Structure prediction request, 387 residues.
Amino acid sequence: MSDPAGDARALDVDGLDRLIAALSERGFAPHGPIVRDGSIVWGPLRGVADLPAGWTLEQDAGRCQLVRRGDGALFGWAVGPDSPKRLFLPPSLQLFTARRDDEGGFALDPPAPAPGPIALIGARPCEIAAIAVQDRVLLGSEHTDAHYRARRDEAFIVAAHCGEPGGTCFCVSADTGPSARSGFDLALTELHGDGEHTFVIEVATERGAAVLEAVPHRAATGDEIARAAAVVTGAASRMGRELETDGLRELLYGCREHPRWDEIAARCLGCANCTMVCPTCFCTSVSDLTDITGATAWRERSWDSCFTMDFSYIHGGSVRPSVGARYRHWITHKLASWHDQFDESGCVGCGRCITWCPVAIDITAEVVGLRSDGSPPPRTRTAGFRV
Ligand code: SF4
Ligand code: SF4
Prediction:
């Protein structure tokens, strides 16, 4: 049920607050962007007052700073280090617990039940694209992830089309933004300034329409619809980064011995930050743990990373022992072999791996370097985080 432009609706700030309340009344747990720990992350949302009004994130390679915008925009920033991945694929999950009983046997406790359905308020187009990527990986075959499914199935998504791309964004190159095309129930575009604060709303699903019906709203005017379109057009023209994707798969498959890999290895710390913040990375490992008495044991699934030595350890050694080999594997999977596995790119252009790399390694710059003949790249600035 795609909403034709002429049928767009409009809400004010109170209306958005009522929308969050209406979702809560229907049993959803609203989650959205909140200011926490000097950044903007996903968290439980009680209402509009929890949204990051007047805040933005200034980002560049290896740098992110939370700063005031000087206005009251609620969605005047792009993405932070966190993404909805954490809500659907928890960083750590106890799969079962075994307890020794008095007779020498043991009892098994199942994992805690998944929380009730989540409503995402203000998911960015690149984040929605990343959810679709994870859906394909974790739900798209006969081998589905039951824990992911339990959190993902009923989720309600309110998209926020982007008006303020960050310094490391390249969703235009990835063809995932700055407006969301599918994968949401409702989508909003924020219009603010000169005393106005309005959200132009698109309705994409029947349940989106039903929730909106419970909230006071009106038809958007032609002028509002035109300005909402201009918001995303403007965002598209201000991308912080660009990635040339033509021939990229062939380039990566064909440059296994490129000197750039050694040059990257000299800078890369192998810290795995890039994979932890990436909204499409899905790798996990499973550990069996016990308490100090041995009376209780549990099996835990945690996010893991192809940047760790242990991740590719196979009977006696890691198959990717060098940092350069691990970076080569990561970028080749993201931008080349993901196409063969899942018929799409593994990168949605969110820029997180660039911002949160402590030594400012930039996936877009590395591709430029790999396209070159191997002569030394220009120096990249390295900067500590100033969050
Ligand atoms: S590889 Fe980097 S830019 Fe691409 S989706 Fe992952 S974090 Fe975002
Ligand atoms: S590319 Fe950056 S974030 Fe990723 S492992 Fe290397 S140093 Fe860490």
About this structure: Residues 1-6, 379-387 have pLDDT under 50 and may be disordered. The two ends are 41 Å apart (CA to CA). Residues 24 and 30 are 6 Å apart (CA to CA).
